[in-house]
Amino acid sequence: MPRTDHVADVVLRRLRGEFPELWKYEDIAAVAPAGLSEHVVAALDFLARSRDLTEVRTPPAAIEFACRLAEHGVPISELLRVYRIVHAGLLHELYAEAARVADSQELLSQTTVTLSALAFEYVDRTSGQAVAAYQGARDRWLQRRLLVINEAGTRIGTTLDIAVTAQELADVGTDHLADLATVDLLSSALEEEDLYPAPAPATLRRIAQAASAGCPDLACAAGRTHSYPEGSEPARVLANGQPLRLHVTADDVPAWLATSADHALALRAWGPYSLLLVPLWARGSPLGLAQFVRRRTADPFDDDEMLLAQEIVSRAAVNIDNARRYTQERSTALTLQRSLLPHRTPEESAVETASRYLPSGSRAGVGGDWFDVIPLSGARVALVVGDVIGRGIHAAATMGRLRTAVRTLADIDLPPDELLTHLDDVVIRSQREEQERADEISATCLYAVYDPVSRVCSLASAGHVAPAVVAPLTGDADGPTSRKVDFPELPVGPPLGLGGLPFETAQFELEHGSRLVLYTDGLVQSRTRDPDRTLALLHDVLAGSPTSLDETCDELLSALLPHRPTDDVALLVAQTRALDSGHVAAWDLPCDPAVVAKARAQASAQLATWGLEDLAFTTELVVSELVTNAIRYGEGPIQLRMVLQSTLTCEVSDASSTAPHLRRARVFDEGGRGLLLVAQLTERWGTRHNREGKVIWAEQLIPSPSAEAPSAPA
User: How far apart are CA 164 and CA 178, in angstroms?
Assistant: First the structure.
């Protein structure tokens, strides 16, 4: 008993020789001597007193030693081997002492047998209790590991943002694994290039980093790009996809770890530390590298911690790859969407417009909302807003097809209801073409035509929300000004793609300076908002809206969409203008060929009034041909109208629905050259049909800005 310290020291030296890897863990190295000493004392006490085996308890320090082994992932076979070596060392000392004091070989043999039996009973009892403690600690460690993995799954990937996801990984790393964590992504992964094979040396960008309190900054600044030399440890980890543990000393700082000479000095001053490199791989391709660093006072990373880091990083890599793919797809769809929308609304004499497009902020992706402003003949303008049901590139491409179809149909001057009928046929044909892909196409559309001469707005809706009509400002200089806001009741037809149901056109007159507000349902409809309250808020904003149309758009979006919208929003605000009698001249003509000369004279006199004598010759030819065609091939009543805006438009209307066609006259043909002549002399010409007949029109450009022609009202 007086020699227990000597016996414990002898056995401890043997343990150090047999298990050098255990002594790299500071907590195990600290508790091992106390546990061994308590074991020796307890074993000798058991042998000396011949105590009952049921009373034997494994010493507390030995229990803690077993728990430490479990927490560091040391296999249980190593714990049992430790017990065998301690048992062998203790028996060796006991046999040597027995041989020294025994006075006969028989007594020595009996003593050896008795000591061996008792020692084996003691070791079996205490090792069983140690194994139970080891297993309990191991179960608790595994439970904590599952909790850490579950927490990482909850905290990492909360958004589809690459930088946010990478920062969440770094934060989890410093909370549970390391003092410093960094996340670097390959530039090819961020620039939508092929991910594999990665170029050598691979260029990476520091996306995120996190450090515990008091930890010096060992990382380069976030956002900086860097590369690792070919053959270096990080380059190998990126290439083979296997994690790597390193123990870095103050005198052996890897060249790839230091970003500058000062940085290398800081690394050496920090002293020895443990480094864990874990590759970010997803779907068989490398994305980047995560680094975890522990300061000198912490234990190096063990096998279990490396597996835990692998599990967390692999899950984060999938989230980062999902965010990367979503970002690329959203960027592609948004680029396509914006390229298909008008980059700027054209300047029209009929209306002044302002518009906004706001993509969805949800994970569903970009939608198919669109708007358009289309100039028509006779100083008129078409205002369009629509919404394709669905999300992503397919919805954006469908929107582009529908917008092109609307422009094509508008170019032949169809009334709103007929235009939507033809557009409905376009959608139905597209549905048949898309049946193999099982992609259903559906859309809503509102098409409005405003005539600044009559101030009449004609519009039809295919399942789309009705617009808001805002009257001009009222009030005196001393009182507040306000605008009257109405939501006209319109006959709303079915959404595009159903077919078989008619569309109806509604008409109403607008005052000069009125505003027509067209929008998609994303502005006013949401699962979390009351529709009535939203419309009331829309009414209040429009009633007090400022003079600027752009400010009106901004106020509408900020008031109705305080947060990121869950649906796309397209907004078009148009303020109407009116052409007064000074810019329009009209004459009713009889169906008599003799009136053609009179029509030419009236047109020439009107041009003189407007100061456009330079256009007299061309205009007389155009008027002569159009009036002659109406008298020869049309039906009365016939009207000649001239409209002055940024261009000069000559229109001849009659009651016949038969439209002329441009053809090439043969050498001996007496007719057929009139429309060809009109087409050559004018900028544009065409035919539009209405309820009473047709109108043939031709537009000419004003020859010079210096011409003293009255400008259209502002």
Answer: 19
Mean pLDDT within 570-586:
89
Which H or E run contains 203? strand 203-211
For the chain, what percent of residues have pLDDT higher than 70?
A: 86
The b-or-e profile of 292-316 (16+ CB within 10 A means b, else e) is: bbbbeeebbbbebbbebbbbbbebb
Closest CA to 212 of 266, 176, 164: 176
Percent of the chain with pLDDT over 90: 19
Note whether 675 and 660 are within 8 A (CB).
yes
Residues contacting 263, CB < 8 A, separation 6+? 218, 220
Rounded CA separation 589/600 (Å): 12
Query: Quick one: pLDDT band at residue 233, thresholds 50, 70, 90?
Result: confident
Residue of 312, 311, 381 whose CA lies nearest to 346: 381
Mean pLDDT computed over every residue of the chain? 81
Say yes or no to pLDDT of 267 above 60.
yes
Highest mean pLDDT among 37-41, 329-333, 349-353, 450-454: 450-454
Residue 698: closest CA among 612, 604, 605, 627 = 627
Residue 263 — pLDDT band, cuts 50, 70, 90? low
Residue appearing with tokens 């000074």 = 582
**Residue 348: other Cβ atoms inside 10 A:** 23
Task: Centre a 10 Å sphere on the Cβ of residue 479 and count the other Cβ atoms it contains.
Answer: 8
Which residue from 212, 211, 207, 210 is spatially nearest to 166, judged by alpha carbons? 207
Rounded to whole angstroms, the Cα distance separating 346 from 514 reads 19
Distances (CA, A) of 45 to 4, 40, 51, 301, 477: 11, 8, 8, 39, 108
Instruction: Report whether 142 contacts 155 (CB < 8 A).
Output: no
Structure token pair of residue 181: 């964590």
* Cβ-based neighbours of 527, under 8 Å, separated by 6 or more: 566
Q: What would the pLDDT profile of 502-549 be if each residue is shown by its tens digit?
A: 899 999 999 998 999 999 988 888 777 778 888 888 888 888 877 889
What's the number of CA atoms in the CB half-sphere (13 Å) around residue 637?
A: 7
Listed in order, strand segments (DSSP E) in 577-713 are 584-589, 638-644, 647-654, 684-690, 693-701
Question: Which of the residue ranges 148-152, 201-205, 382-386 would you say has the lowest mean pLDDT?
Answer: 201-205
Tell me how far apart the alpha carbons of residues 107 and 7 are, in angstroms, rounded to a whole number: 23
Higher-confidence position of 619 and 331: 619
Sign of the Cα torsion 406, 412, 418, 423 reads negative
Integer angstrom CA distances of residue 701 from 579, 586, 614, 615, 687? 18, 20, 11, 9, 19
Winning range, highest mean pLDDT, from 58-72, 258-272, 332-346: 58-72
Closest among 485, 619, 492, 607 to 556, alpha carbons compared: 485
CB burial of residue 349 (10 Å; 0-12, 13-18, 19+)? buried
Measured in residues, the chain has a length of 714
Using DSSP, state whether 134 is helix, strand or coil: helix
pLDDT above 70 (res 41): yes
> At 337, which helix (H) or strand (E)?
helix 303-340
CA distance 517 to 488: 12
Is the pTM higher than 0.90? Answer: no
Helix (H, G, I), strand (E, B) or coil at 443: strand
DSSP letters for 577-608:
----GGGEEEEEE-S-TTHHHHHHHHHHHHHH
